[in-house]
Amino acid sequence: MDVEDLKWLALTEIAVEGRELEYVSAAVAAGRMASGGKFSEACARILSEELQARGVLLTTSCTDALEMAAMLLEIQPGDVVVVPSFTFVSTALAFVRAGASVRFADIERDTLGLDPNSVEALLDDRVRAVIPIHYAGIPCRIRELVRLLNNVPRAELIEDNAHGLFGRLEGQPLGSFGRLSTLSFHETKNFVCGEGGALVMNHTDDLERAQVILDKGTNRSQFFQGLVDKYTWVDSGSSFGLSDALAGFLLGQLEAKERILASRARVHSYYRTLLDGAAEAYTMRLPPSEELGSSAFHMFYLLMPSMRVRDHVLNRLREARIRAAFHYVPLHSSPFGRSLGAHGDSCPVATDISERLLRLPFHSRLTEEQCQRVADEVIQAVEECQ
Ligand SMILES: *Cc1c(COP(=O)(O)O)cnc(C)c1O
Hints:
seven-stranded mixed sheet, about 40% helix
């Protein structure tokens, strides 16, 4: 057989789970593709209810929702934000664009989320926001962060919840702990519409101003509700609203929530069962299982014993046409992070984890046979390193 014919196993994959295409067609047929339409409203209603939020606005991306958060907080030069070094660029970028200085905090080894001790050492009265993520959908130590911030009057908790939609901590939805939280519907996430996001608001005070910021600084929304008699420029803002055609796609996904979550949980448990024995034998670490009852199942990762082993396994998987990946280049050691004054050795756990972490293909359509193929390759490659 020609190996070129062997299909690659993708790292992530989009699947149509329900009425997505019907809804996109309906938005086009109705000539309503701009933001703020009925599909956006329906998505926002589902998200508000599930996350017990005061309000939800759909945005063009999670990055844009984070920029809206920075605008709502009126972040400006002189302000400081604390972000994990081990995260995607946007967590920091949105606040840097508003002029903030960033302090990179380290992560802790169980959840790979912000380490409250590291955060505590970085807090002072210049800090305006702390922005945790829930890595891989596993809740970070968010209650400890809430407690810490009670002592810093001007600092707000903003959850970058791009991984954690529908995850829970002791029954409380991820994304409901901070003043604001943000979501991503990028094609690599659990619920997708290509490019998209949401700003989730947990304080009623933010609702009106956020709508104005999303509507290019105008009071358009109040005008259409008949609350003001002129439609005009009243504040700063940008064009942050999601197209209603994309919101239609997203609604199809959100309506299939239970099925998508169940599929992802099932794939997670395939991997766990297939790799448990080898993990013990070869000192690989699986994601923590006691937190899994509350996980959003965003990805499946392995912590390999060393960078040498990780890179060998990564190469072997590539040869076997399996897309695996490392994650992330820590922001404190990235070229731009360093240009902002970060030191290469300031977050040792983030550095260590990023050298050893291996992400396996993970999406709702993976079969047990495909997981078996991945696990067999991983185990064989690790054995070669002994
Ligand atoms: C994907 C991701 C983002 C960016 O999401 P976009 O919707 O592409 O802007 C931000 N933060 C984290 C943690 C992410 O994983």
